[in-house]
Design a protein that fits this description.
By secondary structure, the protein is an alpha+beta fold. The chain has a domain of 68 residues. The protein is built from 8 helices and 17 strands. The strands form 7 sheets. A 4-stranded mixed beta sheet has the order 6-5-8-7, with no helix packed on it. Strands 11-12-14 form a 3-stranded mixed beta sheet, covered by helices on one side. The chain has a two-stranded parallel ribbon with strand order 1-2. The longest helix is centred in the first third of the chain and has 19 residues.
């Protein structure tokens, strides 16, 4: 009996340790999860589909929202303000930035401008009241849910052939992470599509049929919701031509098609950087410093899609310990996620870095309202209601000392015009 008690105690301790870990292997495990995680047979919050939340996205946030930085949370609990700004630092960003409105002088920056306005009534997320349809498209804003982009049943799987399909070998694990021994398919076992992303033939109950051309390729470190104060978290985006795949920007264009029209003079996407741009990317460290090399030049504030569909190669790049900072080759591609986060950010248009003022830093500090160099009548147009601490959080916890004393915007990572 004593042995049984000790064993039970050890087991409980192990479970607590796993639950508190920031390594995030979610209960989906790359495919459909236990049904009762999302549905309740006898006491649902929503009679529609017997969901545990009042709507589809609220059901997701039942697990994926939390009060502090932790594991797989993509939304911070509660109202957002200067003393309680979003805490989660996933590569996709924290949806809670949608609740953070900035007003300073003539600046009025509504929270809705910071990302994808998912509808999750239980958690205070409402439709975009300005863009009634997706910018550059016809997708209706009131229909935007987590399940518009992610397949909650996780049917999409990557087979050993490299193809992505909705049926076939059973899914053994998530295919999102950098552990090749467990996150790669075998002849008899598949792994889930990256982040349960929806692919060809997808439809959901909120939006109906969504014409995704396929699933894009990527790998991410298993510990990804973390500060980048010391080391960057690198998502290794890839380019695969295998059946069932598509490029990242082509996937985004499902809802934003005219934003990708060359006739609209838009920024090029899904094309090789070329030797000139790749060379500038690799040399650029910060304003005034072009001493970088291809071995150490990667910047998660301006990522690119590596010109490979080999998930083993991508896994080798998906690190958070500073061991995989290789820069760009001429065949690597610029994409939507080179400038934007997938969920939301602390900047307008869910950008990865600020473009609202020519300087990111002044006097070695972010351009916050508490920076003594941000003064005068135009100060509100520079800090735009943010403190140094809030700028730091928007930059994934990076201290301003990682940039130049007077750092100009990071478009220069590729264009070096500063």
């Amino acid at each position: 009996m004593k042995f049984a008690k000790v064993t039970l105690f050890a087991l409980l301790a192990a479970l607590v340790a796993v639950g508190m870990s920031t390594t995030a292997y979610s209960f989906h495990s790359g495919g459909v999860a236990e049904c009762e995680g999302c549905h309740s047979m006898h006491s649902p919050a929503s009679a529609t589909f017997l969901l545990v939340g009042g709507d589809q996205s609220s059901t997701c946030l039942t697990c994926h929202e939390g009060p502090t930085l932790s594991s797989y949370h993509v939304s911070t609990t509660g109202a957002m303000g200067p003393a309680a700004f979003p805490q989660n630092l996933t590569p996709g960003g924290d949806f809670a930035w949608l609740k953070r409105t900035y007003v300073a002088g003539s600046v009025n920056e509504p929270g809705r401008t910071h990302g994808h306005n998912i509808v999750a009534a239980d958690f205070g997320y409402v439709p975009d009241d300005n863009n009634l349809t997706a910018p550059g498209g016809t997708f209706v804003s009131t229909q935007l849910a987590c399940s518009s982009c992610h397949d909650p049943h996780g049917k999409y799987r990557r087979l050993q052939t490299g193809a992505v399909a909705r049926t076939g070998a059973p899914i053994k694990a998530s295919g999102s992470y950098d552990n090749v021994s467990t996150s790669e398919p075998t002849a008899t076992e598949a792994v889930g599509a990256y982040r349960l992303l929806a692919g060809n033939g997808y439809s959901n109950s909120v939006s109906g049929v969504i014409g995704y051309p396929g699933v894009p390729a990527a790998k991410v470190p298993s510990t990804y919701n973390r500060s980048e104060a010391t080391n960057q978290t690198r998502v290794a985006y890839g380019v695969s031509t295998a059946a069932g795949h598509t490029t990242w920007s082509n996937w985004c264009a499902t809802c934003h098609p005219t934003m990708h029209s060359t006739g609209n003079n838009v920024h090029p996407v899904d094309r090789g950087l070329g030797s000139t741009i790749a060379g500038l990317y690799n040399q650029y460290v910060k304003t005034g410093d072009m001493t970088g090399t291809i071995a150490n030049s990667f910047n998660s504030l301006a990522p690119f899609a590596s010109n490979t569909g080999d998930y083993t190669v991508l896994a080798g790049l998906a690190k958070n310990d500073g061991s995989a900072l290789a820069g760009a080759g001429s065949g690597d591609q610029v994409m939507c996620l080179s400038c934007h986060r997938a969920h939301a950010s602390g900047f307008v248009e869910m950008l990865r870095f600020d473009q609202g003022y020519e300087f990111m830093t002044k006097g070695g500090q972010y351009v916050g309202s508490d920076n003594p160099e941000v003064t005068g009548s135009r100060a509100p147009n520079q800090h735009r209601g943010r403190t140094i601490a809030e700028w730091t959080q928007a930059y994934q916890g990076r201290p301003a000392t990682q940039f130049a004393t007077y750092q100009r915007v990071l478009c220069n990572k590729c264009h070096a015009q500063d």
